[in-house]
Each structure stands twice: as structure tokens, then as C-alpha cells.
Amino acid sequence: MEKKLSHRFEQLKAEYPEATVELWAMDEHRLGLKPIFRRVWTPVGVQPTAEVNWRFQWCWLYGFVHPQSGETYWWLLPKVNIIVFNQVLADLAGHFGLGKNKHMILVLDRAGWHSSQKLKVPEGLHLEFLPAQPTRTTTCRTTLANN
User: Fold this and answer.
1) pLDDT tens digit sequence for 121-139
2) Percent of the chain topping pLDDT 90
3) Is residue 42 a part of any domain in this protein?
4) Is 137 among the domain residues?
5) Residue 44 falls inside a structural domain
6) Do residues 120 and 93 touch, judged by C-beta distance below 8 A?
7) pTM of the model
8) Which of 25, 97, 134, 137 could form a disulfide with 107, with the two C-beta atoms 3.0–4.6 Å apart?
9) What residues make up the domain containing 11?
């Protein structure tokens, strides 16, 4: 992945020699509430019963980071889908002034709304997807799980 990103970065610098090119990464994270009462006091020998409040309330954090500088940019939104992601990308491009003179390589996972045919990628934004099976991470997890 590092070689691919480095090659893509150099390719964009060659295509747009007057432009600034930056590398960013992004992901979404669900934040929320699923209230469950976990402890119930009962007399000895009595089977405990507990109520569960099955309402779910959450929102999604769309987080962007520029690893070189540590700069972040984020949104809190009520859901994830293609329409919302299009709006987030358009705002990201507007906020950072992406276009002919500034380009951004955005590294992201392969969620359905990231790679949909309905996705509208603004000018100056170039999407690069993480591998479906990151071998180094998988190897580390396997090694840790087996020890």
C-alpha cells in the first residue's frame, strides 16, 4: 500500500506540477447509546429478570486526518449513505479549496458508499482504497491470537 500511495502521489505531482498535493485518510465511526440494565438485585434463589430499553440512538463521526501535520477535519451526522457522503466530500473539497491548484489523495476503506457508482467525487479529490485483506494486519492479528 505504501508503494502504491507513493507512486500515486508522485504521479499527481507530475500531472499537476503547479498544484499542492496532500495525502489524507478518513473513516467513519458509530457513536451512540443502547441502554441495557446490567445488574439486578434479587433475593438469593430468585431468578433475576431485567428490563431492556431496546431504543437505539446514535450518530456517525466522519473523521479526516492529515498524517503529516496531524490536522483533522470531522463531521457528526445522523447516518451514513451515499447522499450524505457526497455532501461531506463536497464540503471537504470546498473547505480545503480543492481544484486545479490543490489536490488531495484520500485513503479510505471499501464501504459500499465509498465506491458506489452514484458517488460524486469533487475536482481535486482522488480516492485510494485500502486493500480488501491487509496482509500485514491480518498476520499480526493471527500471530497475537495464536500466542
Assistant:
1) 999 999 998 887 765 555 5
2) 46
3) no
4) yes
5) no
6) no
7) 0.73
8) 25
9) 2-35+53-146
| Rounded-to-integer distance, Cα 143 and Cα 147, Å | 6
Q: What total of structural domains would you count in the chain?
A: 1
Q: CA 31, CA 57: separation in Å to the nearest integer?
A: 9
Whichever domain contains 97, its CATH number is 3.30.420
Determine, yes or no, domain membership for 20.
Answer: yes
> Cβ contacts of residue 14 below 8 Å, gap of 6+?
none
Sheet holding 20-33, edge to edge: 71-77, 57-66, 20-33, 102-108, 125-129
**Alpha helix segments (H runs only) across 41-102:** 82-95
| CA-atom Rg of the chain in angstroms | 21
Name the residue type at position 136.
Answer: R
Q: What is the pLDDT of residue 77?
A: 92
Alpha carbon separation from 20 to 16, 71, 97, 123, 127 (Å, rounded): 8, 16, 11, 14, 16
